[in-house]
TrEMBL record:
Species name: Streptomonospora arabica
Keyword Transcription regulation: yes
Protein name: TetR/AcrR family transcriptional regulator
Signal sequence, start to end: none
Domain of life per record: Bacteria
Keyword annotations of the record: DNA-binding, Transcription, Transcription regulation
Upper classification of the organism: Bacteria, Bacillati, Actinomycetota, Actinomycetes, Streptosporangiales
DNA-binding region ranges: 34-53
Matches recorded under InterPro entries: Homeodomain-like_sf, HTH_TetR
Length: 204
């Protein structure tokens, strides 16, 4: 039977597991990270891991949801919703999200390895992600629905509009494949401007 830990020990061990997961998942990935890798720094047995998380995927999910509130603040509250008009809001959202995806190791990993998010989703109810109050994707869909209703966005299906925005966010992954990779910042700026103007043609 796994040992019983005091409340203080539990707090310490969980903190170590989260830190180990953050480091390992962003460098090795979910599949190549073993339970042995995760529990080693915490100095606990593999069987004790399950006192804290149901699976590796559950640990990954907690790391992701813990970051969601901060990501939403940066991309939605301080960007998408901070602008005087829809077009500028989309521009700010795209630039802020590119910044998150290129500077936050975990979200960068999710963008470049979507199969890891799929593995997490297979082990958990999708509502455990989509239902998180700080989920920026949920907030983005709400924004799109509202602005379409006001006539400030093109009349395409919301999923298509969000898909177009996501397509822009794939550019950083492929910057090295551009005809002139050194012009990536200019390419990104122009692409963001074109997409924002195309989705919000009236600029309101």
């Amino acid at each position: 039977m796994p040992p019983a830990f005091s409340a203080e020990e539990k707090a310490r061990i969980k903190g170590v597991l989260l830190e180990s997961g953050r480091r390992l998942f962003t460098t090795r990935g979910l599949r190549k990270t073993s339970l042995e890798d995760l529990v080693g720094p915490a100095e606990i047995a593999k069987s004790s891991f399950y006192q804290f998380f149901d699976s590796k995927e559950a640990l990954y999910l907690e790391l992701m949801t813990d970051r969601m509130t901060e990501v939403r603040r940066a991309t939605v509250d301080d960007a998408l919703l901070s602008a005087p008009d829809t077009r500028e809001g989309l521009r700010r959202f795209l630039h802020a999200t590119v910044t998150v995806l290129t500077t936050d190791p975990l979200y960068s990993r999710l963008m470049t390895h979507p199969e890891e998010m799929e593995a997490v989703a297979r082990r958990h109810d999708p509502e455990s992600v989509t239902g998180v109050p700080g989920n920026p994707v949920t907030a983005l869909f709400s924004f799109v629905d509202e602005k379409r209703g006001e006539g400030a966005l093109v009349g395409a299906d919301p999923a298509v509009i969000v898909g177009v925005l996501q397509a822009v966010l794939l550019l950083p992954m492929h910057a090295g494949r551009l005809a002139s990779p050194e012009r990536y910042p200019e390419v990104l700026d122009l692409l963001v401007d074109i997409v924002a103007a195309g989705l919000a043609p009236d600029g309101r």
